[in-house]
Amino acid sequence: MKLNITETVLRDANQSLIATRLSFDQFENALELLDKAGYYSLECWGGATFDSCLRFLGEDPWERLRKIRKICKNTKLQMLLRGQNLLGYKHYPDDVVRAFVRKSVENGIDIIRVFDALNDLRNIEVAVDEALKAGAHVSGTLCYTTSPIHNLDMFVELGKKLEAMGCHSICVKDMAGIMTPKAAFELVSALKKNVSLPIVVHTHSTTGLGAMTLLKAVEAGADVIDCAISCFSGGTSQPPTESMYYTFSEMGYETGLNPEVLKQINDYFKPIQKEALASGLLNPIVMNTDTDALTYQVPGGMLSNLVSQLKAQNALDRLPEVLAEVPRVREDLGYPPLVTPSSQMVGVQAATNVLVGERYKNVSKEIKAYLHGEYGTAPGKVNEELRARVLEGVEPVTCRFADLLEPGLEKAKAEIGDLAKSEEDVLSYVAFPQVAEKFFNAREEKLRNTAKYSISAIEE
Ligand code: CO
After folding, report:
1. pLDDT confidence of residue 295
2. How many CB atoms are closer than 10 A to CB 21?
3. Model confidence over 308-344: pLDDT tens digits?
4. So what's the pLDDT on residue 459?
């Protein structure tokens, strides 16, 4: 029996534990080891890494990808893509999505995991199509959630549609760590029965279920699981790579991993973890088990946002009311999975409803956009009375929202002008305009300084 293991230390573990602040310089010397370990793939790009490179680390994300590719010659490089949102938080026009996907593959990505927060597959079809054309392995993703309308049949239907779209594998993405071992067993079994693609399972250890969930998923036939090297595992991150390796090797699974190299990788990252703990970048709380997500059926990140929002308004005592309001708001919105950005939208609206003392007296512009159809179609029925009141006579969008967007690439090229040195730069600018422009300016400045120094050196 074969079991493939993906290592997430460079992306999801990095994002979940230390706010994606791992710089290339910090992990450069681990890349040879990571390439040698025998992983199925290295999740190393996409998600929040792109934004973080430009905004906080002063790194060109495309250059980071090329540098990883240069060292990791044997292991598949993997990225996470939010469908029509790419790596940002709004929908981009199709020409931008296509160019971004093409450039990602050109710069070294082998596997693209594509998802949409609402599981509205129209929002991933362009990215999937372009990734297939570019020759990447496309992992079509379903966002796992629980609600009165989400059931096995619904997920199996999504799986079949992903297969029909031409995806090469199906990823079950449990971003909140709420998928129980039994639910994972049933879901993977049902997918295995109804689609012929490999099944990838992604979960988080947040609620303490992660490792058990992976065990039952593999017993049900999952082909790939996501793990993080032990010193960057647990809590809001993934279950530990080494523990999973020992568990499944003993059970007779062939993972292809070399335990000695895994030990070396962990030894490499240990001082980085220690330093992050010392600086406060890594808050020990996120490494703990937090079962609140199971009690309240909201993801951990959403709960901590609610707490800080209420604290800021001196209303922490209203938390139980807000938590009771969350499922009602979610019902009104047709049960969106609680993942960025819907988790934030639902949380803020629930708190507003409680604090104002009248439901939907104030409605956030994000909820307006959602009810207008700008994020796609809700999984369930939206409260139509609420929608009509909020939209004030404006008809909701029923087509794919990106169909209404003008092409964006040429316009962006003209806007950014000489500051962009490549098509990759233009794409960085389209994705995060202000942040990218600031980054380009800083880069120019650096170049000018280097030039000055080299001239003075010649004159000496
Ligand atoms: Co994740």
Report:
1. 81
2. 16
3. 889 899 999 999 999 999 999 999 999 999 887 788 8
4. 47
Residue 124: exposure state from Cβ atoms within 10 A (0-12, 13-18, ≥19): buried
Residue 392 alpha carbon to ligand 1 centre in Å: 37
| Alpha carbons 438 and 422: distance in angstroms, whole number | 16
How far apart are the CA of 45 and the centre of ligand 1, in A? 13
The pLDDT of residue 79: 98
In 3D space, the residue among 156, 146, 137, 148 whose CA is nearest the CA of residue 179 turns out to be 146
Query: Distance (Å, rounded) from C-alpha 214 to C-alpha 234?
Result: 13
User: Which residues does 344 contact at the CB level (< 8 Å), separation at least 6?
Assistant: 302, 305, 366
Q: Kindly give the distance from the C-alpha atom of residue 389 to the centroid of ligand 1, in angstroms, as a whole number.
A: 36
Integer Cα distance of 246 and 409 in angstroms: 48
Ligand 1: distance of its center to the CA of 393 in Å? 39
Question: How many angstroms separate the alpha carbon of residue 8 from the centre of ligand 1?
Answer: 9
- How many angstroms does the Cα of residue 201 sit away from the middle of ligand 1? 10
Q: Domain limits of the chain?
A: 4-279, 284-403, 409-459
For 284-403, CATH gives: 1.10.472.90
Question: How far is CA 145 from each of CA 82, 172, 324, 330, 394, rounded to the nearest angstrom?
Answer: 17, 10, 18, 12, 30
Amino acid at 73: K
Q: Is 283 helix (H, G, I), strand (E, B) or coil?
A: coil
What is the Å distance from ligand 1's center to 436 Cα?
Answer: 25
Contact 115, 148 (CB under 8 A): no
Q: Is 340 helix (H, G, I), strand (E, B) or coil?
A: coil
| The CATH number of the domain covering residues in 4-279 | 3.20.20.70
In 3D space, the residue among 200, 255, 261 whose CA is nearest the CA of residue 33 turns out to be 261
Whole-number Å distance, alpha carbon 60 to ligand 1 midpoint, is 23
Q: How far is the CA of 448 from the centre of ligand 1 (A)?
A: 40
| Low-confidence spans in the chain with pLDDT less than 50 | 454-459
Cα separations (Å) of 115 from 136, 188, 197?
15, 18, 17
CB proximity list for 7: less than 8 A, separation 6 or greater? 34, 37, 39, 41, 42, 43, 227, 228, 229, 241
pLDDT (tens digit, 9 = 90+) per residue, 249-293? 999 999 999 999 999 999 999 999 999 999 999 988 889 898 888
Q: How far apart are the CA of 108 and the centre of ligand 1, in A?
A: 22
What per-residue confidence (pLDDT) applies to 386? 97
Distance 173 CA to ligand 1 centre (A): 7
Cα–Cα dist 17/34, whole Å: 19
Strands (E), 263-350: none
pTM beyond 0.90: the answer is yes
> Residue 295: is it exposed, middle or buried by C-beta count within 10 angstroms (0-12/13-18/19+)?
exposed
